[in-house]
Every structure is written in C-alpha cells, then in structure tokens.
Amino acid sequence: MIDGLVVVDKEPDWTSHDVVARLRGVFGQRRIGHAGTLDPAATGVLLVGLGRVTRLMRYLQETTKTYTGRVVFGIATDSLDADGTEVARAEMPVTREQVVAAALDFTGTIEQVPPMVSALKVGGRRLHELAREGVEVERAPRTVRIDALSVDEFTPGPFPEAVISVVCSSGTYIRSLAADLGARLGGPAHLAALRRTAVGSFTEQEARPIDAIAADPSAAVLGPAEALRDLDRLIADPATAGPIAHGSRLAGDALGAVGPGPFAVVDGDGSLLAVYERRGEILKPSVVLATEVAG
Q1: Of 118, 139, 213, 223, whose CB count within 10 A is highest?
Q2: What is the C-alpha to C-alpha distance for residues 104 and 147, in angstroms, rounded to an integer?
Q3: What does residue 11 show for φ and ψ, rounded to 5 degrees?
C-alpha cells in the first residue's frame, strides 16, 4: 500500500468522487480520500490522500484556499452557478470601480448562507440531494473568512463580467460570494466559472491532470511529511521518537514547541512520526504514524 499525497488538477465535469474512484484504479488500492470537495464544473487543485495519509486529510481540509472565478452580473440561477436554471435577469451596467468597492465589504470575517446545491448535511441529508428533489430547507448562516478579494479583469456592458481572485478559509462558498456581491450592487449575479488555484501551499503549478498521474503514478506521490509541509514542524531526537511512536504525551515545550499547533513531528531523517496538538500544558498526539510509516 502506498502512503502519500497526490496533488490533482481536476478537470471539468469530474466529481471529486470520480477522481477518487479513478485513482483507486491507478494505484490499485482502496484506501484513498480527498480533502475539500470541488463542484463538477470547477477545475483546479484537489488534494487526494493515499493509504495512511487519509488520516491526515483534515489538516489539509482546514487550510486556506485560493480561487479564481468569473462572475456574471444581471443574471441569477437557482444553483448560483452556470449549471443552474436562470431564474432572474435584469440589466445591471455596474462599473469596475463599483465592483471593487463592493468587494471590499466582503473582506474579513463574514456570514454566509450555504447554497442548496452544497454537500452540507441538514437533518442527515445532503443539501444537493434535497435540491434535486425540489425541496428547499432553511440553512443557518456560517462564519467564514475572506482574506483577500480582488477584481482582476472586468468586461463592461448591460450584463458585465468580473474575474475575481479569492483567498479564503475552508468552508467558503464562492458561488454564494458571487450572488452576495451582486446583491450588494443591487441586482442578481451568478458564478459562471471557478478554478481553485491553491490549497495552502499546494498550487496549480504542481498539480497534475488525471491522465498524467495515470501515466506515471509514483512520480505524482508526495510523502506523508511533505503532505503536512504547511504545519509547524518539530524534530524528534532518538530518545523522544520511541515514546512518540507509542503515543505518549509530551511536555508543552517539548522539542521547542511554540504556539498552539498542530505540529508535524518528524525524525532526524524527516519521516513523519505523528501529529501533536496542544492541550493545556501538554502536547497530545492526534495521529500517530511512526510505526506504520517508518518501514
């Protein structure tokens, strides 16, 4: 079994589940999972864990995401994106300056209502399943964070378009952001296209299309330690590596730990031993891979 991370450049019309299913065949193993679902129409960076790295995916899921999207003003759809049915149309000749000014209002911590076509569960059912049945339920707003929102390109007209770049927290819905941006400007809007250009430090430059991965699977795999390269790293000496392998708790300042963590703990060779998190005055293991990965 291979333990590692694959940075996929997802193509349009593939679901995230489709990608996982294909890679199960490519790598010949069942234990595969992804972090951060991408809608079928969206493209870009999708992180896929192999083997025991699937236990680490939540640390990748929770990291910052970067997107490029195209927003069309004056037209609304029932899905908030181009895959939906048009439900409103009204000429909306806003200017680039107006869009830029409105975008500033969305930076920082904001509240978002998840779209009905999302994978979020309400009452045990995924919203997109309910939406397909024509059922709409009330969704509680969620707090998300927009670190940056810029207007990179703008095409004026009665139904103007803007290409935006967004750096945001996990759980942010860009289609909702597009619709909310239109509402702030006094009209409808939808997300016409979306590409995820980065998840944490994993960018589209190192992402590979499925066919390229299938052509040379081993070249596409990053090791467990590299998978957690965005976490604070602690290096364990030989005397400490043994207790870590057995999931022992450590003193809060062990291995020079500073801050809340989580911490990727590696040995002198750079192999991932465990992930530790601070709990009060101690460091407690969240995931221990030492005995599994070392071989």
Answers
A1: 213
A2: 11
A3: -90, 160
What CATH code is assigned to 232-293?
A: 2.30.130.10
What does the alpha-carbon distance between residue 235 and residue 247 come to, in Å, rounded to a whole number? 16
Q: Are 62 and 170 in contact (CB under 8 A)?
A: yes
* Closest-CA residue to 146 (of 129, 165, 118, 161): 165
pLDDT of residue 37: 87
Say if CB 80 and CB 191 are below 8 A apart: yes
39 an active-site residue? yes
**H helical segments located in the chain:** 16-27, 57-61, 96-104, 127-132, 174-184, 210-215, 224-227, 238-245, 290-293
Strands (E), the chain: 4-10, 32-35, 43-50, 65-73, 75-77, 86-89, 108-112, 121-122, 125-126, 142-155, 161-168, 189-199, 202-203, 221-222, 232-235, 250-251, 263-266, 272-279, 282-288
Is pLDDT above 90 for 129?
no
Measured from the Cβ of residue 232, the count of other Cβ atoms closer than 10 Å reads 15
For domain 65-199, the question of CATH label 3.30.2350.10 is answered with yes
- Per-residue pLDDT of 232-284, as tens digits, reads 999 999 989 989 988 999 999 989 999 888 999 999 999 999 999 999 889 99
The percentage of residues in the chain with a pLDDT greater than 70, rounded to a whole number, is 90
* Active-site choice (39, 81, 180, 267): 39
Of the candidates 264, 273, 260, the residue with the CA atom closest to the CA atom of residue 228: 264
